[in-house]
Amino acid sequence: MNFQTLSYDVIGIGFGPSNLAIAIALEEHQQANEAPLNCCFIEKQPAFEWHGGMLLDNTHLQVSFLKDLVTLRNPSSRYSFINYLHQQRRLESFINLGTFFPSRLEYNDYMRWAATAFKDRVHYGEEVIAVEPLEENGKVEWLQVVSRLKEGAIEHRYARNVIIGIGGYPRIPEVFKSQKHPRIIHSSQYKNCHYRFSRVGEKPRLAVIGAGQSAAEIFRDLMGRYPQGRIDLISRSRALQPSDDSPFVNEIFDPDFTDEIYRTPREQRQSFLRAFSHTNYSVVDLPLIEEIYERLYMQRITGDVRHRYFPSCLIQAVSSSEERLQITLFNKNTGVHKEVEYDGIVLATGYQRDGHHKLLEGLEPWMVSRTVERSYQLPMASGCQARVFLQGCCEETHGIADSLLSVLAVRSKEVVDSLYMPNELKAPLENTG
Ligand SMILES: Cc1cc2nc3c(=O)[nH]c(=O)nc-3n(C[C@H](O)[C@H](O)[C@H](O)COP(=O)(O)OP(=O)(O)OC[C@H]3O[C@@H](n4cnc5c(N)ncnc54)[C@H](O)[C@@H]3O)c2cc1C
Ligand SMILES: NC(=O)c1ccc[n+]([C@@H]2O[C@H](COP(=O)([O-])OP(=O)(O)OC[C@H]3O[C@@H](n4cnc5c(N)ncnc54)[C@H](OP(=O)(O)O)[C@@H]3O)[C@@H](O)[C@H]2O)c1
After folding, report:
1. 164 falls within a domain
2. Which domain holds residue 180?
3. Are residues 206 and 297 in the same domain?
4. Which among 350, 373, 391 is the end of a domain?
5. Distance, CA 155 to ligand 1 centroid (Å)?
6. Which of 201, 240, 329, 356 is the least crowded, having the fewest Cβ atoms under 10 Å away?
7. Pfam families under this entry (predicted)?
């Protein structure tokens, strides 16, 4: 082990949009004024890809492209979506499209284009498994970042600052946790695994569980893929509900709003997050709801009903054999139980965003609290000079936009400014925990 070559001022864990925005902000900050910080990023995927399992046809960005990796921080950055279009010679054609919402395919390509500029600083194909304190004489100045390579080898790197941007991991409903069947997949794997359904023939019986954007997009995709198949959408909610992206509501996604929500007392903040949860979670773009409704309606005209929506249904039990899956549905409205057989099931049941707790287990004795400061930094005991920043898992304190693209450009500046600021000069905004 060569401590010299593997030590950094900053290590970013994960290289999704959040840490990509940090890489750009660091580069631009250094160009403008400061001495460079020595940094690297560790990403478990083999190459940059933005939710590759959901890169489906006819899906679009859900925020304006003006909320790209840089524009709200530095509109003249070379990493803007507009410059990407210009470099690809598509700017004029994109203008002719007349949209603020590029396809997810194009937006993924934009971010991959930006990520390419940092390929010398990103270690792809390595999963970080722990961040541990290096304690010397009762003090911690360095953190050890432990990662596992694909072949199983373990790598150690050292950093004064660690920025965790690992996104979410699949939320699996309790009744499915013990089921390891290859044709039960989570929405995040959909594009890479749906071929498994076609192995049972041209008319698979499939269920999609959930009522969010992922469930609706997958339901539409499966209906198109298997017009002769029997595809069911099952939700515990009463109806597919539209996301509210009207302009006054949208202000809660403005970067400026972060200060306001952070200052709000805890209970008030929690009730605010509940009240506005339907701007993002368990909601679907209205045109997609209308498209699905019309499709199901058309089948009722012909009487050839192959695709169905079961609202208000709880899944009470699941059993599986190699050939088939069986679920017990309970309809909350009618009180009726029903057994239904499927060949495959897609769990579009969302994500959990607490993966950082496991990574940071070894550091817990040094952590004063699990609640981040306004600067996204975890408060540490006085003997710990090493710093940890969290991104994308601070919804409770920093608002619903925290897991989204909306605040990336501005948040990356806030984190980079803190990296250049000595610990003791910080003046965090008051937060009630
Ligand atoms: C299908 C889908 C579409 C979306 N569309 C939009 C949208 O249009 N607009 C919007 O605002 N938000 C959208 N979101 C929300 C999404 O969270 C953000 O777009 C964005 O991906 C957040 O970036 P991130 O870097 O924080 O997380 P992620 O994009 O999840 O990136 C995290 C990265 O960390 C890596 N990683 C995880 N664990 C480790 C580890 N232990 N070691 C190393 N690497 C690790 C992952 O492989 C991943 O590349 C969407 C989410 C989904 C699921
Ligand atoms: N094109 C795009 O840009 C795009 C595409 C997909 C996703 N996204 C984004 O990705 C994020 C996540 O969206 P998502 O649709 O994956 O997740 P989500 O919005 O969190 O929705 C998850 C769904 O699963 C249901 N669910 C959770 N646990 C369940 C259980 N135990 N039993 C039954 N149902 C359960 C939820 O039901 P309840 O409602 O009852 O809780 C909800 O309907 C959002 O920000 C979304 O906008 C964007």
Report:
1. yes
2. 171-242+281-350
3. yes
4. 350
5. 24
6. 201
7. Lys_Orn_oxgnase
CA distance 233 to 185: 15
**b or e along 347-366 (b: 16 or more beta carbons within 10 Å of the residue's beta carbon)?**
bbbbbebebbeebbeebeeb
pLDDT exceeds 70 at position 131: yes
Of 350, 376, 405, at which residue does a domain stop? 350
- Domain harbouring 311, CATH code: 3.50.50.60
Among protein residues, the one whose CA lies closest to atom 9 of ligand 2: 213
CB 41 within 8 A of CB 28: no
How many Cβ atoms from other residues are within 10 Å of residue 402's Cβ? 23
Token pair of 32 as six digits: 């403008």
Residue with token string 């550091």: 363
Residue 280 main-chain phi, psi, to 5 deg: -140, -45
What is the 167 CA–ligand 1 centroid distance (Å)?
5
243: confidence class by pLDDT, cuts 50, 70, 90: very high
134-176 pLDDT, tens per residue? 999 999 999 999 999 988 999 999 999 999 999 999 999 999 9
What number of CA atoms fall less than 13 Å from residue 233's CA on the CB side? 27
Residues 60 and 196 in one domain: no
> Closest by alpha carbon to 56, among 171, 214, 227, 228?
214
Same-domain pairing of 145 and 287:
no
Nearest CA to ligand 2 atom 28: 349
Judge whether 253 lies within some domain.
no
Q: Average pLDDT of 345-358?
A: 98
Q: Which candidate, 124, 167, 169, 129, places its Cα nearest to that of 148?
A: 129
Domain count for the chain: 2
What is the atom index within ligand 1 of the atom nearest the CA of 391? 26
CA of 349 from ligand 2 middle (Å) equals: 5
> Is a pLDDT exceeding 70 seen at residue 1?
no
Residues 322 and 389 in one domain: no
Asked if 130 and 34 sit in the same domain, the reply is yes
Q: Which residues is 232 bridged to in the sheet?
A: 207, 308
The pairing of strands 154-164 and 139-149 is antiparallel
- Determine, yes or no, domain membership for 161: yes
DSSP string, 234-291: E-SSSS--B----HHHHGGGSTTHHHHHHHS-HHHHHHHHHHTGGGTSS-B-HHHHHH
Is residue 317 a part of any domain in this protein? yes
Tell me, using a 6 A CB cutoff, whether residue 188 lines ligand 2. Answer: no
